Amino acid sequence: MSVIAGVDIGGTKTKIGIMADKFVSTVIDTPKDAQKLIDVIAKTLHDLAGEIDAVGVGVPGAVDSVGRVSYMPNLGFRNFDIATTLSQKVGARVFVINDANAAALAECQSGGFTDAVMLTLGTGVGGGVILGGKVFDGKFGKAAELGHIIIDVDGKVCGCGNRGCLEAYASASALIRRAKEEMTNNNHSALWKLCGGIDNVDGAAVFAAAKQGDVSAKSVLSEYIRYLSIGVVNVCNIFRPQAVIIGGGISNQGEDLLAPLRAECERLNYGYVGAHKPALLAAKLGALSGMYGAIAFAKSKLSEA
Ligand SMILES: [Zn+2]
To answer: How far, in Å, are 222, 249, 251 from residue 283 at the CA level?
Structure first.
């Protein structure tokens, strides 16, 4: 049996797991220096398993088709050839995948789907597309940037510099930003009492306040769901997947998020009458999805070779 490791590099923490006879894993701090990062990953892999056949690495950045990371915005690494440097260090094949794609692959497999799209709602909006059981990443990599599909031509400025990207409306950060605006405009919002201060607002608080009937929270939330549903509808119309999986902390709201989303999708999707409807689901694997997906990706690449 092959020994396959998964590494999920995050902005502050890096998760490392190894699938052999049994599953072992650990979490380390992510060094802010590329060479140090490679060194500490190699050492941790060695300590955990000794001999390894392949490593899958999920990274928060744009990956090209041969595993070079052109840009990792949160860590400031540019043109970082993780596949080659780590492979030389650990003496195993290394396959690099964008972290959102890795999470999508893991969630897709765990849900028993072959065709699914995942949207991760966090600081940004991560996208992952799995078609026929494989990660769809475009001929040259860097595909499935679903957070940057433009849903409002003259809309809000996105972190990428364009206007009107889905991410500027449907990320967790966007929800929190809108809630803060509402609080500033309305001293009577239940959000004040619920959060104790404007800096403590999070996505869960907006859902909780809306449930209590708070008018400003309800309006922020319905606007949020409306924009998110536009993104989901676009994705459904392009890929017609078996499922759209929503990840990130906001997906913990379950049906409070999914039921109104489904209703909007029913209303807006092209040709839904009598047609197969993609399932709209919350992600199940939580924070470990990136690492599981990195392992699944390495496994699939090994079997292709
Ligand atoms: Zn953008």
So the answer is: 21, 10, 7
Return the pLDDT at 287: 87
Rounded distance from Cα 29 to ligand 1 centre (Å): 28
pLDDT in tens, 120-151: 999 899 999 999 999 998 888 888 999 999 99
Residue 72 Cα to ligand 1 middle (Å): 15
Q: How far is the CA of 156 from the centre of ligand 1 (A)?
A: 10
The correct CATH number of 4-104+287-304 out of 2.60.40.2890, 3.40.250.10, 3.30.420.40, 3.30.420.10 is 3.30.420.40
Q: Which CATH class is domain 113-283?
A: alpha beta
Ligand 1 centroid to residue 263 C-alpha, Å: 26
Pairing of strands 243-247, 116-121: parallel
pLDDT at 63: 87
